[in-house]
Predict the structure.
Amino acid sequence: MVLVLDATFERLSDLQKTPLLNISVCRGTFDRVAAEAVLTGDGQLDVETELRTLVKRSFLLETFNDKRKYEFQPVVLEYVRYKAGDQTAANQQAIAYYRSIAKEEPWQTIKLIDDVREY
């Protein structure tokens, strides 16, 4: 499996590898906005196009509910995290993003799961 992932990973351009490695810090499903939050760069990257390219290359799964969301398959996620190495900067950006969208108290007991989902 690693040989297949290596071969597929090596076919990516450097412009595609960087976003893939950075978004590996995202937990569960994520959208374009979350992906943009963990990407650093000069702003010339079309995040939506890159995410769709990664779907076509089978690095990401794509779902459509109220909006387009992405997620990693577990094996692919472990592989990408291994390739990424130290992702301290991307992790800090992800923390800042998730804190910015987290609901503030007071939480309601009936909707506790919805209240803490962002965490």
